[in-house]
């Protein structure tokens, strides 16, 4: 991208994702204050922020954790999944928090309740909207059930 196009395009893109960008920047500042940021890298016009145990994507801020990896055949599937959410944010702009954020948070809350009640992970967390879409957009290749790979509990 030429310097001039970036000068015009990137601010417009930031504004397109403004609600989640402001929220992501706030989360980043709080996590920095709490010393919960392991590493920050700028890739694909996004800030990939490694944390000890948080995975969430808020506009230009992609928080991920190695503790969130599900599959033994992928090194960073949590990172890939959260990048998929970042791509959703790019597509949906200001509607992202309504269309993806609310259903995703609802699935997280249900998953936590399921773990507390049954003592194990909810196996269907990634099997429906918007999580399965984020997996596809992020390039997470979910193995078929008859393969040797297993999801981590």
Question: What do you see in this structure?
Answer:
This protein has 153 residues and is an alpha+beta fold. It has one domain (3-138). Helix content is 50%, strand content 11%. It has helices at residues 3-16, 18-33, 77-92, 96-118, 131-138; strands at residues 39-43, 46-50, 56-58, 61-64. The protein has a four-stranded mixed beta sheet. Helix 3 runs antiparallel to helix 4. The radius of gyration is 16 Å and the shape is globular. It starts with a helix and ends in a 15-residue tail after the last helix. Residues 146-150 have low confidence and may be disordered.
Number of strands: 4
Q: What is the CA-based Rg, rounded?
A: 16 Å
What assembly state would you assign to the polypeptide chains in this entry? Answer: single chain
Whole-Å distance between the termini? 42 Å
Number of discrete domains = 1
Shape: globular
The strand order across the widest sheet is 1-2-4-3
**pLDDT averaged over residues:** 91
**pLDDT < 50 stretches:** 146-150
Strand content: 5-15%
